[in-house]
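Lay summary

Proteins are chains of building blocks that fold into shapes. Our project writes down both the chain and a compact code for its shape. Here are two examples, one after the other.
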Amino acid sequence: MRRLGSMILALALVAGLVGAGGALAADAKGGTMHIKFSTWHPPASREVKTVWTPMLEELKKRSNGRITYTLYAGGALGSGPEHYEIVKKGLSDMGYFTATWTPGRFPLADTLSLATWVDGKDVAVKIGNELYEKDPGVHKEFEGVKVLELNGCIQAFIWTKKPVRAMADLKGLKIRSPGGHQTNYIKALGAEPVFMPLGEVYMAMETGTIDGIVTCSPLVLAFKLHEVAKHGVMATFGCVTEGVVMNQKAWDKAPEDLKPIIMEVVGNPFATTHGLNQQSYKEMIAEIKSKGVELYQLPQDEESRWFGKFQEETKKWVADLQAKGLASKETVELYNKIAQQYGAPCAAYPQEWHK
């Protein structure tokens, strides 16, 4: 009888454990999660209003309220260049970072910031995600976080206080650069690159500390630079390499059935929300013009001179990375192929490399 009682007790314990395990599994599958999302974009910016808030609301909606969030905008958790580490270290669970602002850390990923005609962030993400998936060197640069999307931003133009009509007009001008290739482009055109936080650009232009800036149209509007830079040249400078990453531990702890929802919504947040997409780009350009900014299209021969300088910078940059043992030319060639497939020609791709 004692032996039979022990067996019954053991079976009861096993049944209890199985039941508990089943309950835990159900809880894990039906669990909730709270996402702390960080971005350096100002709270009133087009990015926050038309992309990040709608994206987070869409996560909440598609998960039937199981995903909730807190949005930290405007550098509330740290400056722009710190945002990758903010996520990686877990200060936020998910966030938008700019790789180009940390020189040398993501060398191959900075291929995405080459001068390319990209007029929508939705397209930029398609290009960036494909490069991330297909290029092992780019993929390796983001070990330790969950990459949800990667992009090369919307094409940047040069915005100045005085009209620029040719390369000679740029000689000696001080131009704020976002870093990376754009710094080299500015130098190649005869101007002097200056790096400073975007929040300081307005005052610097107003006081004459700098003469212009290379940036994309959303940031011209977000930081009201159209009030101090009344002239723009519509020649692509590319932009910066950016993306949304998630803290690896936060991703690992997320309920398994919520992960596909996160990937569907955040895998291309601009396509999900329709914010900063190709249609939005046309609207932003029209808005900038309506605020009294003159946009100038370079004549073909002058544009070719500018882009020829950019192509020389690409060759030097590739050679430098090759000397460090990185397969940079292969990455640039793959990027150019992908970009062309999405109707976004790379102006900085050396002509002699075309096959």
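And here is the second example, written the same way.
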Amino acid sequence: MVKQIVRDVIFLGQKSEPATRDDLQTGRDLQDTLNANRSRCVGMAANMIGVKKNIIIVNIGNMDIVMFNPVIVSKSGPYETDEGCLSLDGVRRTERYKKIEVEYFDFSWKKQRLKLRDWPAQIAQHEIDHLSGRII
């Protein structure tokens, strides 16, 4: 189901809780909502649709990946960049890493490990920041 985008910075600034298998529908809602906003968005965190759970979706070029309880386990190549966010106006300066490795659970609740670099890595870092209440 396509959900409304949350723009309340107080809500967005709160830390999310671990996801469980009971939260699979939120992953599907993220897919639907990203598809509805595809022209202006490349990733989302569950709190952006009003759910304080550790769930994100990231476009990696040819597909979208939903990650439950994602954790960055390695990172390298720090750089500074400007980012925007569907939940905020304007762009802000932030630090990101060129290469990251993320562990997460998929829809089958199997643990996965994914290496990302460049733009997909930047998107994942932005969305994972949302889970801890960090807003660019």
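What can we say about the second shape? The helical segments are 9-12, 24-36, 118-131.
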